[in-house]
Every structure is written in structure tokens, then in C-alpha cells.
Amino acid sequence: MGRVQDKVVLVTGAARGQGRSHAVRLAEEGADVIMFDVCHDIEHNDYPLAGEHDLDDARREVEKTGRRAIAAQVDVRDRAALEAALASAVADAGKLDVVVANAGICPLGADQPIGAFTNAFDVDFVGVVNTLHVALPHLTAGASIVTVGSVAGLLAEKAGPGSGMGPNGAGGAGYNVAKQFIDRYTMALAAQLAPLSIRVNVIHPTNVNTPMLHNEPMYKMFRPDLEHPGLDDALLTFPMMQGMPIPFIEPDDVSHAVCYLASDESRYVTGLQLKIDAGACLKF
């Protein structure tokens, strides 16, 4: 316990899924947490996103650890709103030590309009850039930045267009390119911030057991042979993604890595592309 004792951490997309898991784990290890989430659905994303009640529940879960939670409804696409909300939260918390740029969506479907591409890209990449750029003025030597990419995006880039690898449709294409850009952006930013002793690393998970994975459009991607596939249908093909014989990893598996990168245990680790993928990249 106490691996990030008394640090102040910003987590975006904190209302549920990976973001909530990261926020709670960091609080359990001694951090106070600033929690941002959009708390409403986004057009063309055909599974429901977290709501205001989810953010409230996540805040209470952090507070049960005995640490402080500062929660706000913020859209990472809106840099001005993000800047104002973070400035207020940092003034309240007193400092900012760690940023976990986690917020993301994955709209899927073969017949989506171009808006699905732009929304996915704007949330998944522009949202990361906005988050980090408004956070930078608050960070000092010893700070840590963690971005969240995707093994699916990396595999799609390796396989190339037309390979069938990765999410489908305009939204899937926007998701893939956003996650690829996150990887390159993180490496570039790490090089810029290393002389300031601010670390920047990216985590690339495989399928994670969250609502982003458990919805019919995602099941359909793994079972295109069925009109309305369910979880049991997708479980037959989910393991094809990984080298290890598992359908997905748990949010905690990613949170362990986030905690390490947020802690002083990794004080000389920067520019790391950490794949938590059960051997997916090895397989493909």
C-alpha cells in the first residue's frame, strides 16, 4: 500500500470501465483523484456511455478508500472546458502529479457515416492531446503521464488496409488511427519532456472486460456470421485475438500497470510502449 501516497492524479473517462478501475486502484495506493467523464452518449457510438450516476458511484468508490475525489462532467473534445475544469480541480487539490489520459469510445458498424470517424478520432486522439496539453502547465519534475492506446490499433496498422484486422466501419477506422497516433504522439512527447524529468508512457491493452467490449456491435465484429450475436457467441472467437487462450483481460490488469507507471517505482521509465495483450502482438 502507499505506492502513490499523497500524489494527485487526473483520470479521464473515470466514471466506469478502465477509468474507474484506475481511479480506485490509485486511491487504494494513496492518491487523491480528479475524475473527469463526459457523462452522456456521443452520436454514432451505438452502445450507451457512462452517465452522471456512474460518475457519482465512482467518486464514492474512491472516497471509500479514505482518499479525496474531485469529480466533474467534462468532454475531452472541449479544450476550453477541460482547461477550466482542471484549473479549478488543481487549485482545490493543490497540485497535479499524474495524468492518465484514458477516455475513449469505439463506435462500430459497416454502414456508419463519416461522423463516426470524426467522433472516434476526436475523443480518442484529440481528447488525449487536449488533456495532456492543458495538464502540462501544472506538472513539474517527477510527474508521470500515462496514455492508453490499443493493441487492436497496432495490429490494424501492421496488417494494413483491407486485412480485416481490427474494428470495422468509419468509427472503427477512426478508432484505429487514433490509437496509432497516440503511440507516436506519446513517444514524441516523452522525448520532449525527458529533460524536464517528466515521464510519458503508453499502455496498449488487448480486449478488456468493460462495456466497450460487451455490446452487440463489438460482438458482431467478432461474429460477422450472425445477425444478432450475444456474449456466448463472441466468447467462442474472442480468444483468437490473443496468443494466450483467454477471451479478454480484466480492468485490474491494466490498472496494475497504471499504478506502476504513476509511482516512483518507475521514476526512470519513459517512452515505454507497454503491451498488456496476452501475446496478441506475438501471435500476429
TrEMBL record:
Recorded superkingdom: Bacteria
Q: Which UniProt keywords apply?
A: NAD, Oxidoreductase
Q: Name one Pfam family in it.
A: adh_short_C2
Q: Does the keyword Membrane apply?
A: no
User: What GO MF terms are annotated?
Assistant: oxidoreductase activity, acting on NAD(P)H, oxygen as acceptor
* Family under the similarity heading: Belongs to the short-chain dehydrogenases/reductases (SDR) family.
What this protein is called in its record is: 3-ketoacyl-ACP reductase
